[in-house]
Specification:
Elements: H1 2-7, E1 9-10, E2 15-16, H2 20-23, E3 110-115, E4 118-121, E5 126-129, E6 132-139, E7 144-150, H3 158-167, E8 177-180, H4 185-188, E9 198-201, E10 204-207, E11 210-213, E12 229-231, E13 236-240, E14 249-256, E15 260-264, H5 272-277, H6 279-284, H7 288-304, E16 307-309
Parallel strand pairs: 7-8, 8-9, 15-16
Antiparallel strand pairs: 1-2, 3-6, 4-5, 6-7, 9-10, 10-11, 12-13, 13-14, 14-15
């Protein structure tokens, strides 16, 4: 049998098995006790005709400059008129909150960026990549923790999503609720990672293989503002925010330590420049009615939020 193993050749001699007793003698010079210095350790892979390669290439990350946000006076929503003049206001990019372990436990909800989105235009095409955010909250009535993920990103960012959650001690099975802000591929690319999570999409609530249209309570309510919403946890509300599509959702997180109210809005607001010229509204709206609806929805969100996560 040993002779057969030594002589076994596969794929025209390009790949052959190596008996373990041929490799072990080369390990005699390894310093197992760690008492004697050695120049260079011998690798067990040095005797192999090939080197093991990782299945996935590491993803590349880009560094973004940090800017201080220019605050502006919040407006109060008028039920008779939902218009707002944004002329003269400037919006700068700001990193939204990350937990600071040096400050100890944080009281209240936490918003954690897992993946930063991208919206840019060239002369030939658009680049869309959704932001992925993790929200930690609780239900005080049942003392239950809430693990909420807003959008799942493109499938090519799978490793980033899994690693980003793990960096904060969150396993994939810990995520209880998925908020899908819109139905483009950049928002739903990693839905398969969360087979047991409850999915909120448009006016539907999806549980595994079934979905329920929210026509009866608990459903969207309109008592707090002009936008329909439903409460998810103590400090988090899901808002129906039509604009990019009629079924878009946004997650509004209240009482975030040091930041107030944060609105995670998907494609409702694509970036800070988009608020200044409304270019996306003009380019992606199919008619004048959609333009008016999109702008009115934006105004509602701007009036209730201190920070916007596009």
């Amino acid at each position: 049998m040993s002779e057969d193993l030594e002589s076994l050749n596969l794929v025209n001699n390009s790949l052959k098995t190596i008996p373990l007793f041929d490799v072990l003698p080369k390990l005699e010079s390894l310093n197992l006790n760690g008492n004697e210095p050695r120049e260079k350790p011998i690798s067990i892979f040095s005797a192999l005709p090939f080197l093991p390669k990782p299945q996935f290439k590491p993803e590349k990350y880009t560094r973004t400059n940090r800017f201080r946000r220019e605050h502006f006076k919040k407006c109060c929503t008028n039920t008779s008129q939902h218009s707002r003049n944004l002329t003269g206001l400037t919006f700068n990019t700001v990193y939204y909150p990350m937990p600071d372990p040096s400050k100890g436990p944080i009281d209240g909800p936490i918003v954690i960026p897992i993946l930063y989105g991208n919206y840019s235009m060239t002369s030939d095409y658009y680049i869309f990549s959704s932001t992925v955010s993790l929200v930690l909250d609780e239900k005080s009535s049942s003392r239950e923790k809430c693990y909420i993920l807003v959008d799942t990103g493109l499938s090519l960012f799978k490793n980033t999503i899994v690693g980003g959650l793990a960096a904060h001690g969150i396993h994939l099975q810990d995520v209880q609720s998925l908020i899908i802000t819109h139905h483009d591929i950049d928002s739903v690319g990693n839905l398969n990672l969360f087979p047991d999570a409850e999915i909120f999409s448009g006016n539907k609530r999806v549980i595994r293989q079934f979905f329920y249209v929210q026509k009866t309570a608990p459903s969207f309510d309109t008592r707090r503002s002009g936008l329909p919403f439903r409460q998810l946890c103590d400090h988090t509300d899901i808002f129906l925010t039509p604009g990019f599509t009629p079924q878009d959702l946004s997650l509004v997180v209240r009482d975030v330590h040091g930041y107030g109210t944060i609105a995670i809005v998907g494609n409702l607001i694509l970036n800070e420049r988009d608020l200044e010229d409304n270019k996306s509204i003009k380019e992606f709206s199919i008619d004048e009615e959609q333009e008016k609806l999109w702008e009115a929805t934006r105004n509602e969100i701007l009036c209730m939020a201190d920070y916007i996560v596009p």
